[in-house]
Specification:
mainly alpha; MetI-like fold; 12 helices; globular
Amino acid sequence: MSGYILKRLVSAIPVLFGISIIVFLIMAMIPGDPATAILGSFATPENVAALNEDLGLDKPLFQRYFIWLGNMLQGDFGRSFALNRPVLDEVLERFNATLVLAGSAFVLCAVFGIAAGVVSAANQYGFADKAITFVVLLGISIPSFFLGMMMILIFAVNLRWFPVSGMWPIFGDRTVWVLLDHLAMPALALAVVATGVVARLSRSAMLEVLRQDFIRTARAKGVHERSVIWRHALRAAMVAIIPVLGIQAGFVLSGAVYIEMVFQWPGVGRMLVDAILRRDILLVQGGVVFVAACYVLFNIIVDVAQSLLDPRIRT
């Protein structure tokens, strides 16, 4: 197992290296001059040239990339131009909020998606199957940001059940219940599409398992149907479901950008959008690479979990 984990970690290195190149080149190709954006009304040619030299933006592109990559490998992601603070500190501070949002959405999509898929498969072509399929297709068809805006209009503005935006109230206590009150709508809006995908693929995986011989044998032995479905079939189907959960983890992490903007959630997604608008190159590059590294790490964890369920994967 240790050899398999080491192999997966080594295979992640070229992926992250490629991501760093793509992010760096995209930011370098964006029109505009960061020094001009930072200086604003003080952007005289002399001031712009002096600031570019101070920030190292006057060097050749390949040299700037390797300087940035070398510093990043030492844990130095640079310093934000606009915020005048270390990029890593800003990213870690914002990532806590994103982790709360994306983590909650992932738990919702995993629990309700798998449960819906199992119930749908156990009642194939029945009323429950048709009802779940209809709801799932409806959920997949609705964009997360549009659903979030509709939820704000209905449940926050009209019914006043939940706060309109933010992670915490401007004034008042910061307890777990207050956080859950602010988290309910954005987490649900972010989880809907992922839940539908997990439900559909869980149903397919369960139907394939339910046709296998060991399920027929268990039923022939008189094992209770509930035990057959939830203990035997689901355990075998999880080998196919776990990779889907890994993909949806990336979806909720990337989709958090839209939801954070709709609900004004103070996470990495909102930070990246603001940094792009300010042309804060180092903050954008550091934030994207950090999120990508988290996504790659989570997929390695998913692969390891899958290999524990099915040891044949390791070979």
